[in-house]
Amino acid sequence: MRLGIAADHGGFELKQRLAQELHQAGHVIHDFGAPELEPGDDYPDYVVPLARAVARGQVERGIAICGSGVGASVAANKVPGVRAGLVHDVYSAHQGVEDDDMNVLCLGGRVVGYEVARDLVDVFLEADFQGQERFRRRLAKIAALEAEE
Hints:
5 strands, single chain, alpha/beta, 16% strand, 6 helices, 5-stranded parallel beta sheet
């Protein structure tokens, strides 16, 4: 799968480790930064380009990481076509994709440890949108809101 990944200083270490393991697992990884640990950097500088790449189909899914994951989620969801979710549990990692067609997984680099993060990413990547009528109806309402705004 073509994946995008991005993180600020709060998620830098987790991003580096995940990107390396995902690449070794056979995924094509597009790293949107940060390219190096910079304690004063800002998550929108990395998360927004990642979100735009997801929305344009340049990558199939994205992983956005900041200290708590909240800022990454807020920034990613400002891009039309992105459905980002802040996830700390396995159920939400797959349910977000299956029901809500979540295409960006947001994680808190200071909140979840590496092993949990890896499990969440694996479940996120293995899940598929189920496409039931009620799920499509809800997504159409969100798309209409994005177009309206």
